[in-house]
Amino acid sequence: MVGEIFGMDGFIVLIAVVALLFGGTAIPKLARSLGSAKNEFEKGLSETKPVEPTAHVVDSQ
Predict the structure, then answer these.
(1) 3-state DSSP helix/strand/coil percent for the chain, to nearest 5?
(2) Is there a domain that residue 5 lies in?
(3) Which of helix, strand or coil describes residue 33?
(4) Among 1, 9, 23, 24, which has the minimal tally of Cβ within 10 Å of its Cβ?
(5) How many CB atoms sit inside 10 A of residue 22's CB?
(6) Which value, to the nearest 10 degrees, does the dihedral of the CA atoms of residues 40, 42, 48, 50 take?
(7) C-alpha neighbours within 13 Å on the C-beta side of residue 60
(8) Which residue from 23, 16, 24, 28 is spatially nearest to 8, judged by alpha carbons?
(9) Where in the sequence is the domain holding 25, given as residue range(s)?
(10) What is the pTM of this model?
(11) How many structural domains compose the chain?
(12) Tell me: the pLDDT tens digits for 21-45?
């Protein structure tokens, strides 16, 4: 998806900029926290109950 927007050169530059900004030690921590956030989000989605649509009756008198 990101490769389609920026192309391969832009993707490589993006990774280099992220590596420079966060440093080599912070990237694994960032990836772990993104993974756990994704898992929590999916867990929250699976726990929600679907809402049944209610029929509204309109009196035309």
Answers:
(1) 75, 0, 25
(2) yes
(3) helix
(4) 1
(5) 13
(6) 170
(7) 0
(8) 16
(9) 1-42
(10) 0.46
(11) 1
(12) 878 788 788 889 989 999 999 998 8
